[in-house]
């Protein structure tokens, strides 16, 4: 059977250093088991091939070869599982036949589908082959874990368990750094407020200001703008009237009469509706 001491799934009790020692011990036990299986020829074709590849430094193999080896290992493990299931089923049926017949219960040599020593040898041989494949897989995983633990311990990222005093000191240092950051920010705010021409004056100017928008020009300036606008409209209207009169002179008698009627009707409309007619006479600042 495969060794169970120092399994890769067992939790480490004392940190990475102790875990590394357990991993190394498990690798030694797996290696001893695999060497014994190889010596007696119990690993099978695929197991022997993987054993030899592992002995030739698997880390130096290219990724495609590693992938092919894993596929072969998976297929062999699946075939062994099927073979073991068939042999166990055959053994169970043979044992039932032995119970009903007068034969040897241990060998079951009588009856159809009897269980003999060759079947028993095949069953145990397949069991050992499957255990060898699992041992090869577990040993490779443990070797990779050993490398990771070695690099971690060498770089100083992991330690053999931090004591409670070290944890408290680390927390105190973090809290002290936070307090210093808060004090630094408060000193900067206090210095800004203490400066007369700084942030304090800016805040005061924003507080004591009217809620409405202040005017941008005086009444006299606004009146000058309105007068200039009225003069510009009046001059434009006069230019249009002169152009209309010149156009009437250039037209014939019939057209002149029609144009004259339209002009008089427009003049009457302007007399009845002067500019600004209908607007309220009330003004806010009148």
Count of DSSP-assigned helices: 8
Major β-sheet profile: none
- The overall strand count is 0
Structural class: mainly alpha
Order of helices and strands: HHHHHHHH
Percentage of residues assigned to helices: over 70%
Percentage of residues in DSSP E strands = under 5%
Mean pLDDT reading: 77
From the N-terminal CA to the C-terminal CA, the straight-line distance is 113 Å
Low-confidence stretches: 1-13, 103-112
Rg (CA only):
52 Å
- Global shape: elongated
Question: Describe it for me?
Answer:
This protein is mainly alpha-helical and 286 residues long. Helix content is 72%, strand content 0%. It is built from eight helices and no strands. The chain has helices spanning 16-40, 44-55, 63-100, 117-155, 164-194, 199-207, 219-250, 253-272. Helix 1 packs antiparallel against helix 4, helix 2 (44-55) packs parallel to helix 4 (117-155) and helix 3 (63-100) runs antiparallel to helix 4. The N and C termini lie far apart (113 Å). The relative contact order is 0.07. Mean pLDDT is 77; it is low at 1-13 and 103-112.
């Amino acid at each position: 059977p495969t060794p169970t001491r120092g399994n890769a799934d067992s939790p480490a009790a004392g940190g990475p250093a102790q875990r590394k020692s357990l991993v190394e011990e498990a690798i030694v036990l797996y290696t001893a088991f695999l060497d014994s299986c190889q010596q007696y020829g119990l690993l099978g074709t695929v197991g022997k091939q993987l054993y030899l590849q592992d002995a030739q430094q698997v880390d130096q193999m290219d990724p495609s070869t590693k992938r092919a080896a894993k596929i072969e290992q998976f297929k062999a493990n699946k075939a062994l599982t099927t073979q073991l299931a068939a042999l166990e089923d055959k053994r169970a049926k043979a044992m039932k036949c032995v119970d009903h017949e007068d034969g040897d219960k241990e060998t079951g040599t009588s009856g159809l589908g009897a269980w003999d020593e060759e079947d028993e040898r095949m069953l145990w041989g397949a069991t050992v082959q499957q255990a060898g494949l699992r041992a090869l897989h577990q040993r490779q995983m443990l070797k990779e874990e050993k490398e990771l633990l070695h690099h971690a311990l060498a770089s100083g990222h992991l330690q053999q368990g931090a004591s409670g005093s070290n944890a408290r000191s680390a927390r105190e240092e973090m809290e002290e750094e936070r307090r210093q950051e808060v004090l630094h920010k408060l000193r900067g705010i206090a210095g800004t407020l203490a400066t007369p021409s700084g942030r304090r004056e800016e805040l005061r100017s924003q507080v004591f200001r009217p809620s409405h928008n202040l005017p941008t020009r005086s009444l006299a300036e606004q009146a000058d703008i309105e007068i200039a606008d009225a003069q510009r409209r009046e001059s434009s209207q006069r230019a249009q009237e002169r152009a209309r009169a010149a156009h009437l002179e250039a037209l014939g008698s019939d057209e002149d009469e029609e144009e004259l009627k339209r002009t008089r009707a427009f003049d009457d409309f302007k007399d009845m509706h002067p500019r600004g007619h209908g607007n309220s006479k009330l003004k806010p600042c009148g």
